[in-house]
Amino acid sequence: MVRMNEFEYNQLSSSSKQLSPFIHQVGGHSSIFQYDKNTICKILAPSELDFYQSMPESLKNYTSEFRGIVTVQYCEDESGLIKLVARRQKNSFDDDSLSDEQDMPSPNDPQSSDSMARKSVQLRCSKDGSIDYSNSLGIDIANYEQGKTIMSTINPWSLQLCKKQAEKLHSQLVGDENVSVSQKYILLENVTARFHNPCILDLKMGKRQYADVDSDKKRQSKIKKSESSTSSKLGVRLCGMQVYQIDSCRYIFTDKYRGRMLNIEEFCSSLVQYFDNGSTQRIDVISGIIERLEALHVIISSLVKYRFYGGSLLIVYDGSVNSKCIDVRMIDFAHTISAKTNDDESSMCHSDPDKGYLHGLESLIGIFRDILNNGGKNTVGIEPEK
Ligand SMILES: Nc1ncnc2c1ncn2[C@@H]1O[C@H](COP(=O)(O)OP(=O)(O)OP(=O)(O)O)[C@@H](O)[C@H]1O
Ligand SMILES: [Mg+2]
């Protein structure tokens, strides 16, 4: 087990960075960590790394900037406090974009409503080997039930994934005092960094999510999820959402399990709910989102031999009412087929643009236009969930 004393921790901090849970992770199956204010890290998948390193120029405005590779080491201090420490891979990337000035927001920054919450997110391992948050956050997770839309100051999905990841790493260490657990991660631009209260939608795009290389079992499971959700009809399904509520200063969270259960009307209602801050409908941000979706449609239409299987669109706007800041980015390229990998053998199957992705974009543009034209009202006759 890698246990360190105070001195060893201080040594680490000069050559490496301590990660914290990324509290604005709304979807996904493995934990994303925060490297600095503007940068997150995600477990390295070779196919995703490949995509980021050979991405077409036209997609650069619609993806997160790739910022290199780190090795992340799991350690526990003498009191059981868990630390994940990232070291940059030598020569992996020009470090200019990652200065210390871009570090975590100052706790005194009144604009940074989540800076205090982030500070308090610490995991601890007890003597009996159980892992939990070192403060009241544990209650938020304990109360969290998958598939239920809930209200909370901090995203329970991201906390739950962090805890699971720590449990996995801890169990790998147990029984062998000399083992150290480390794993490679990629560093990516944090799309939510410039938002004070990021309202986020993770939308899985396309009817098909399985990769060419997936096993039969995995294929069948992904086909089933598509068939029983809006993916098969609209080419898009909800995989996670957080919406800032102006009066309570808390977020409403919806997870991917709830997202899979939605029918078309309920999906549309969820998109209406996405613009509802508990006091008004944020219709002022919708046209900017539509414009970006339309521009992305033009780009995807021009890309032949690409398939963004299993990929998501991340839509973000600022919950602070005086901000009209929005963003739309493509994320999750672990199962993407690109022109480079789409060799002679498979190019027969994938030689045109990704029609499934385009269908999803068209559905979204239609629904958002509908919401805008109806002044933020639900046009499908079903009330958004309370
Ligand atoms: N560049 C980014 N900036 C901000 N948030 C991000 C970024 N990339 C991912 N996220 C957050 O992390 C979540 C999971 O990301 P992603 O879909 O890449 O992970 P995954 O585990 O591969 O997903 P899946 O389970 O769909 O395979 C997203 O829902 C989003 O909230
Ligand atoms: Mg994903």
TrEMBL record:
Gene Ontology biological process terms from the UniProt entry: inositol phosphate biosynthetic process; phosphatidylinositol phosphate biosynthetic process
Known EC number: 2.7.-.-
UniProt biased composition (Acidic residues): 94-103
Keyword Transferase belongs to the record: yes
Pfam families the UniProt entry points to: IPK
Region of interest (Disordered), residue spans: 93-119
This protein's GO CC annotations: cytoplasm; nucleus
Top-tier EC class: transferase
This protein's UniProt keywords: Kinase, Transferase
Gene Ontology MF terms in the entry: inositol hexakisphosphate kinase activity
PANTHER family: INOSITOL POLYPHOSPHATE KINASE, KINASE
Membership in a protein family: Belongs to the inositol phosphokinase (IPK) family.
Protein's recorded name: Kinase
Native source organism of the sequence: Rotaria magnacalcarata
